[in-house]
Design a protein that fits this description.
- The structure is a single chain.
- The protein has 25 helices and 20 strands.
- The protein is of the alpha+beta class.
- Among the domains are: 25-252, no CATH class; 438-564; 568-711, Galactose-binding domain-like (Jelly Rolls).
- The mean pLDDT is 92.
């Protein structure tokens, strides 16, 4: 076993790389579902929304969102989408992720085990449906796999010649990108630099402390360099350098209920299909450690032992989380974190005999492997294999035989049989039931609908109303998720109109339904009835019809407007302008701490609340209702840190708050928080601001304007 492998000529290396770049054709020649995000998900479409509207989402619509903090994934996606049409950008981005992962796996194995085995491992990797599931959608796990394998390739390249400091620097940047894509990887990330230290110890007898010193100096510098670059980019986007703070805070504040330890591990009385290759890697790693661990520092044993240890440590970490009620192994896109370690452990041990056969025989082996593994993606292959009695046991027996005879031709044949059976069954559980271009067609129709919304909203917020029981519900969920689903859904039932949701004027409302009875006329009538007591109306803009082959749905687009003459501006006693409340009249309310401050700045008043949750921070001077009726008060602001509340306050009452709001909405240029309150003629009240944080932390924001109106009778 070469350790490290003998270098090939430049021409040979180029031929291998060209062949690796062509491996996606084994899957894509007959279908392209693997390149598109399917329906039924929210998070991948949220990231897609950031790709398409990066600056607007970061600065205006969704500042402080944890999704937008994952710049190591957001920025490459936004860059590609800024240069190409949505369809082209989607294919380039996902093929790019797939290519980085596959080429990095190939190069890592090529340098430690030889190009021939590395190519076969890359071929097996490239037909794995769970790799395509990760690389082919817009969730972060595909990028994490690519960054992990890129880090491994750079660390291996650096270990080949320790004088390559630039490789360590680049590896540090790749590892930082990995953590900034998904914070959960901070637990597994140490396995990668430890691999470098072990490799240099075995290959060059470099003392472990010396390797760690080099890692701190060069690898650490790469981490710092990427962190600084992403911080600078985020400062340009939304004015904050600490770009990853929302993800860190979300992680620290997350509290999920514990699931049963076995959740997701068993499907149809068998181990979940996304764990099958991990089980093969676990058996392989145990064989390697049992046979090579005592002499792991020998040059030929270092990489197999280190890959095996890496995999088993990663598996143990995820298994521990699974046992503690966090089903990381029981969810396919979480368990995909094991894919890099899985295929490194498999690739470094299987097929050693191909390194010594004649080139023509090796070419025949590659062609046979491509034909066999490519057949796993054919229509009917999954059904044919599933019809084999005890198919999983057949695959297990074949792979066990291949490990026993791994240096012989029969071992190679057994491995192809075993991997073909596993891959076919995995394809059957994820892609076999789909039309060859189902996800492509979904994506196209979604892009058409989103383009109509973008052409109409012109920087204003958009809200979605659909019914969970409607045929077009998956389309509506995907479309609303591109605008951060939780912040853009107006209602999820046509039986109960969303009357209680505060919607600022100029907001765009998109009503999605496959039922003709829930078209534009229904939407306008229902929303007008909802908002009649607020002086608002839903003005029809256009209806967009989408043909989805099996059904057709309509997207009725309306704009929220104030009914002329229904909002009567209030003129405070201390103001000469209708509906303008002088901001300098706000005063700090004494609290249990002295955190609250009001600072006049050119754009308004910078507000900082007390630290205690629900504490009253500031009050506006007392006002008297000029007439009995329904009043609306709104504050225009720019968010800072934390959350605050705004309401009508009356001292001396058991419940001093007459009305109260904590929900802000984008209103075209600023954020607006508004509430409605019924007041009697002559009733006195004050406007108040509070801390709405759950923790003992002050909230801060820039208050730009406060307005009030009374509904006409």
């Amino acid at each position: 076993m070469p350790a490290p492998a003998a270098p090939e000529s430049r021409a040979t290396a180029i031929r291998y790389l060209a062949a690796v770049l062509l491996l996606p054709l084994l899957v894509l020649w007959r279908q392209d579902n693997t390149l598109f995000t399917g329906y039924g998900y929210i998070d991948p479409w949220v990231y897609f929304g950031f790709f398409r509207n990066l600056v607007e989402f970061k600065r205006n619509l969704f500042p402080g969102s944890s999704y937008g903090s994952r710049l190591a994934w957001i920025l490459p996606g936004a860059a590609v989408h800024s240069l190409f049409s949505p369809l082209t950008a989607n294919c380039i981005l996902h093929l790019g992720v797939f290519t980085v992962a596959t080429v990095s796996l190939f190069l890592t194995l090529k340098w430690v085990a030889g190009a021939r085995r590395a190519f076969l491992a890359a071929m097996l990797f490239s037909v794995n449906p769970w790799l395509w599931s990760a690389a082919g959608w817009d969730f972060t796990n595909g990028a994490a796999i690519a960054y992990c394998l890129l880090t491994m390739a750079l660390l291996t390249w650096a270990a080949l010649a320790p004088t390559r400091r630039w490789a360590l620097l680049a590896a540090g940047m790749a590892l930082a990108a990995l953590v900034y894509v998904d914070l959960r990887w901070v637990v597994l990330a140490p396995l990668l630099p430890l691999y470098y230290a072990g490799l240099t110890r075995a290959w060059h007898r470099t003392p472990i402390p010396r390797s760690f010193f080099d890692l701190c100096r060069w690898f650490g510098a790469g981490c710092v360099a990427l962190t600084a670059a992403l911080g600078a980019a985020n400062y340009f986007l939304d004015g904050h350098f600490f770009f990853y703070a929302p993800s860190v805070l979300e992680f620290l504040q997350s509290a999920s209920s514990r699931a049963p330890w076995s959740q997701g591990l068993w499907v149809d009385h068998a181990a979940a299909s996304w764990l099958w290759f991990a089980m093969v890697a676990a058996a392989t790693a145990l064989v390697i450690l049992a046979s090579r661990l005592p002499s792991w520092t020998d040059r030929e044993n270092a990489a197999p032992v280190l890959f095996s240890a890496q995999f088993l440590c990663a598996l143990a970490c995820l298994a521990f989380c699974q046992a503690r009620g966090n089903p990381l192994l029981g969810v396919s896109y979480r368990a995909s974190d094991l894919l890099p370690f899985t295929f490194l452990a498999i690739g470094v041990w299987f097929w050693p005999g191909v390194e010594t056969v004649r080139p023509r025989i090796y070419l025949a082996i590659c062609c046979a492997a491509a034909a066999v593994l490519g057949m796993a993606w054919l229509d009917g292959a999954a059904g044919l294999v599933a019809g084999i009695p005890y198919a999983l046991w057949v695959a297990s027996a074949a792979l066990a035989a291949s490990l026993a005879f791994r240096r012989r031709t029969v071992g190679l044949a057994c491995s192809l049989v075993g991997f073909f059976v596993l891959t076919s069954l995995q394809v059957g559980s994820s892609y076999a039931s789909l039309d060859a271009h189902a996800y492509h067609d979904q994506y196209q129709s979604l892009m058409e609908s989103r383009a109509r919304i973008e052409s109409i909203r012109q920087g204003h917020a958009v809200r979605f109303w659909y019914d969970d029981k409607d045929r077009a519900m998956p389309d509506a969920v995907a479309l609303s998720s591109t605008y951060l689903w939780g912040s853009s859904v107006l209602g999820q039932s046509f039986v109960s109109p969303p009357c209680g949701v505060e919607v600022p004027p100029s907001t765009i409302v998109a009503v999605v339904s496959a039922n003709r009875a829930h078209g534009m006329d229904f939407a306008a009538a229902a929303l007008n009835a909802c908002w009649s007591d607020k002086g608002l109306r839903a003005a029809p803009v256009e209806t967009h019809i989408v043909d989805r082959d099996l059904y057709t749905y309509s997207m009725s687009i309306l704009r929220v407007e104030v009914v002329p003459g229904m909002w009567l501006p209030l003129t405070p006693a201390d103001s000469s302008q209708p509906s303008a409340f002088p901001l300098q009249n706000w005063t700090v309310e004494r609290g249990e701490d002295s955190s609250a401050t009001l600072s006049v700045v050119p754009d308004g008043v910078q507000v900082r609340t007390h630290a205690r949750p629900a504490s009253l921070a500031a009050l506006y001077p007392a006002m008297t209702a000029p007439a009995a009726g329904r009043y609306r008060f709104a504050i225009r602001y720019w968010p800072g840190a934390g959350r605050f509340g705004f309401g009508a306050y009356a001292r001396g009452r058991a419940e001093p708050w007459l009305a109260y709001s904590t929900q802000g909405n984008w209103a075209g240029n600023d954020y607006e928080m508004a509430f409605w309150v019924n007041l009697a003629e002559g009733q006195q009240f004050q406007l108040g601001l509070t801390n709405n944080n759950a923790q003992v932390l002050p909230a801060s924001f820039l208050m730009k304007a406060v307005t009030g109106v009374r509904m006409a009778r």
